[in-house]
Amino acid sequence: xxxxxxxxxxxxxxxxxxxxxxxxxxxxxxxxxxxxxxxxxxxxxxxxxxxxxxxxxxxxxxxxxxxxxxxxxxxxxxxxxxxxxxxxxxxxxxxxxxxxxxxxxxxxxxxxxxxxxxxxxxxxxxxxxxxxxxxxxxxxxxxxxxxxxxxxxxxxxxxxxxxxxxxxxxxxxxxxxxxx
Length: 180
Prior knowledge:
Elements: H1 2-14, H2 23-38, H3 48-63, H4 68-79, H5 83-107, H6 113-117, H7 127-139, H8 143-151, H9 162-166, H10 172-179
Helix pairs in contact: 1-3, 2-3, 2-4, 3-4, 3-5, 4-5, 4-7, 5-7, 7-8, 7-10
């Protein structure tokens, strides 16, 4: 599945067609990544090329607001005890969102100040992706970093992360740490 998905993605990239993808296309790729990640077990071995494909597509789709695949891939990294990889993916995702936000700001330069005042300050990221990143910080006992992360975004965390906590059932101690 990963190889065929990457082949299609790469073909679209070579044809300079990725920029033409809309929300439904990003969602389709993101759901496919999520499906692949749900099938992951400790015995699953992805090649370096497959890992790269999953990362590239997941981050690109998340930049297009289809975050299910990125969250699912981050959960695999959490299960593999790779919090640094989760944080690196988050940095790429955040940079992509900030680039899009700057482009949006540039488009608004000619608008009135009243319209500009209504813009949201900061970056809004997916709450599920944010919960995965908080989990990565918790794995490193870096609670101050997790708090800084929350304060730097305009993302409201669900009052209870029950749905995301289910992703951590493989590690009850980590699950408790994140919920606290």
